[in-house]
Amino acid sequence: MRQITVLLAAVVALAGVIACMAPASGQADEGAAPIFVKEIPPGYRDWRLISVAHEEGNLNDIRAILGNDAAIAAYREGKLPFPDGTIIARIAWSYVPSEENNKVFGRRQSFVPGSPPDWYLQFMVKDSKKYAATGGWGFAQFNKDGKPADEAKLKTCFPCHEPVKARDFVFTRYAP
Amino acid sequence: MRQITVLLAAVVALAGVIACMAPASGQADEGAAPIFVKEIPPGYRDWRLISVAHEEGNLNDIRAILGNDAAIAAYREGKLPFPDGTIIARIAWSYVPSEENNKVFGRRQSFVPGSPPDWYLQFMVKDSKKYAATGGWGFAQFNKDGKPADEAKLKTCFPCHEPVKARDFVFTRYAP
Questions:
Q1: Is A64 helix (H, G, I), strand (E, B) or coil?
Q2: CB within 10 Å: which end of chain B, N or C, has fewer?
């Protein structure tokens, strides 16, 4: 019994060491693999509005971009780069006509959020040290079950944002 | 000197009585003229998001609908009617293609807020006694100078909202 206890303790200790090592694996080298955000920042749905947009094409969504306090403050001050601690959330819904509104308006004019697409939730989290490999931003995408996208998908985020380097890699402008 | 003082006091008192009477002028009668909201509720730009929409046609805008705490709570609880104290804000911007985004995406797909239209800001304020003539809601519209729309314009709000009586006269549904 005692030997099993000692063995179990050793296994637990080893697992603990490995778990603590894994997140740090990308930090020491400049050429290390990028690190992505794997957990949904809590409370994002209560954050304030940065802007809205409609994307046609493959996406065909209507979206809101929300920001935590650091994001909103930075936008309103007009200061770049965004400070560490900034988090920007993008929530997307499918872009659908509102039949009930159109009945009232008497014409087909009203487009509103429908059900969310599979990968409806994205974030950019600023930590210039931790996410140095991707411009200081940790990219994240989650599906309707709260599951994070795999790294193959997340690796496509930063290359698309690189052309906006002059605005600290953020496409969205503040809508006052 | 004493007579002038007495006269001034009487004038001030009379002005005070008139000022207190004017807002109440529509409350006593059921058939009274509707009352509209003439001041922008403070802090509305910091309220939380209810939903987004795009309106084609004459409006051609993209919009965000924000709500104060009472509005957000009522939406999330799914309870109707909205309680007194609910305020819903609609901010509209012109609907414009984003040339800078489209350059990056390689196609014309991105539509974002442009400059606001003249009457960009609307509110619905719930007070079932004060605004009884218009379903319990005080309607409001403001232009870019913060000036309220005239009553001729505001009188068109409620008749358009009447068809949504079953949802307490509110078109917008909550986007989770």
A1: strand
A2: N
Note whether B76 contacts A: Cβ–Cβ < 8 A: no
Please answer yes or no on whether A55 and B111 come within 8 Å at the CB atom: yes
Q: How far apart are CA B15 and CA A172, in angstroms?
A: 51
Q: Hey, what amino acid is at A63?
A: R
pLDDT, one tens digit per residue, over B25-48 is: 434 444 567 788 889 999 999 999
With vertex at residue B91, the alpha carbon angle to CA B147 and CA A72, rounded to the nearest 5 degrees, is 110
CA distance B168 to B148: 24
Segment-wise mean pLDDT, segments of 10 residues, chain A, 176 residues: 65 51 42 80 98 93 98 96 98 95 91 94 97 96 95 93 96 97
Contact in structure between B63 and A62 (CB atoms under 8 Å): no
Contact with chain B for residue A63, Cβ under 8 A: yes
Cα–Cα distance for residue pair B76/B50, rounded to 1 Å:
10
Interface test with A, best of B54, B142, B158 (most A CBs within 10 A): B54
Tell me if A93 and B175 make a contact (CB, 8 A cut-off): yes
- Residue A94 CA, chain-centre distance (Å), reads 18
Full-model pTM: 0.81
Burial class (CB in 10 A: 0-12, 13-18, 19+), A17: exposed
Counted across chains A and B, CB pairs separated by less than 8 A come out at 108
In this prediction, the answer to ipTM > 0.85 reads: no
Which helix (H) or strand (E) segment is A9 a member of?
A: helix A2-21
Whether residue B56 and residue A173 make contact (CB cut-off 8 A), yes or no, is no
Q: Please report residues of B whose CB lies closer than 8 A to that of A92.
A: none
Burial label for B14, CB within 10 Å (0-12, 13-18, 19+), is exposed
Say if the Cβ atoms of A57 and B91 lie within 8 Å: no
Q: Which DSSP category does A101 fall into?
A: H
Residue A158, H or E segment: helix A157-161
* CB neighbour burial string for A141-155, b if at least 16 within 10 angstroms, e if fewer: bbeeeeebbeeeebe
How far is B169 from B131, CA to CA, in rounded Å? 13
